[in-house]
Amino acid sequence: MIRKNSLPLQKPKFEEVQETQSESIRIFRWDKNLDEVYPIVGHNQKNATSTGMGSQWHYHPQVELTYFLAGEGVRFIGDSISHFKAPEIVLIGSQLPHYWKLESSSGLSIQFRNSADSPLAGLPEFNLLAPLWKRSLHGLLFQGTLKDRLSHILRHAATSSPISRLAMLLEILDAINEGQPEEQETLSKRSMPQHQSSTYQRSIQKAVQFISTHFKDNITIGDTLNACGLTRATFSRHFNRAVGHSFSSFLVSLRIENARRLIASGQYSVTSAAFESGFNNLSYFNRVFKKRWNYTPTDFKKNLFPQTSDAASKSPKS
């Protein structure tokens, strides 16, 4: 059984983004964490703080471009689970489930519709972006000069007028559409559009939050079933469909990403990083690590810290 001091389970969310009649795009920023966001309307005018959804597993019809200025944690985009560190810019397609697990952060995000009934879809030029919309259903991570260009535009978007902001969005989409493929990393192996009408969204969201909170503990699928209220057969069928992983695959992905982060910090040996992340078998950890990245954790550590042997590494401070 898991420890009793677990965090409360959050409600699952289909995010109904509040759009205004005066603007075809929504921009908001946050300064401390993803739970407190400030929608920006007009010319750099902040609305009152509203509840953000970024720290919960969720999805929405709008396309989203999110720019983290500060923060470090785990990014969940479709079936992709990966450690990240700001600055980072990600494009998330319509209905693609996503969330970030981290303590504190700051950044900004732009949301807009690309459906046939959206204001922007009335522009003939918008048809040229059809390939981009298809790729966005897997999530895109930007790098290199393209990331630098997007960063420059996004930093100015929050302080610009609504008309300038719209022009900047079109400039961003053109830059991505015409950008170099090597500067655009596809994140999720599968496109995984969710639907608000799904009967099991509430339970699946509970399961995602439960596993990502307790992955370091010795949790079982039985613990997860108790948390989300599903039978094993129903859970297995709908969890895989919604998240792109089985229970064990999702759990191992969280653990292996955390272990890699600890090794990269230089403060953990390979062994201590594995056990700290929830693994209880070092041989299995080594095998899973190599399968995921095509090199062993020891080789990964030696490449990062060639002057420091694993045996000489510091143990985690208590």
What does this protein look like?
The protein is α+β, with helices and mostly antiparallel strands and 318 residues long. It has two domains: 13-186, Jelly Rolls; 201-312, Arc Repressor Mutant, subunit A, CATH 1.10.10. It contains ten helices and twelve strands. The chain has helices spanning 130-136, 144-157, 162-178, 201-214, 221-228, 232-243, 247-265, 270-276, 282-293, 297-304, and strands at residues 13-14, 25-30, 36-41, 45-46, 50-51, 58-59, 63-77, 80-85, 88-92, 98-112, 140-142, 184-186. It is globular, with a radius of gyration of 21 Å. The two termini are 24 Å apart.
Helices and strands, with pairings:
Blueprint: E1 13-14, E2 25-30, E3 36-41, E4 45-46, E5 50-51, E6 58-59, E7 63-77, E8 80-85, E9 88-92, E10 98-112, H1 130-136, E11 140-142, H2 144-157, H3 162-178, E12 184-186, H4 201-214, H5 221-228, H6 232-243, H7 247-265, H8 270-276, H9 282-293, H10 297-304
Parallel strand pairs: 1-6
Antiparallel strand pairs: 2-3, 2-10, 3-4, 3-5, 7-8, 7-9, 7-10, 9-11, 11-12
Helix pairs in contact: 2-3, 4-5, 4-6, 7-8
Please sum up the structure shown.
The protein is of the alpha+beta class.
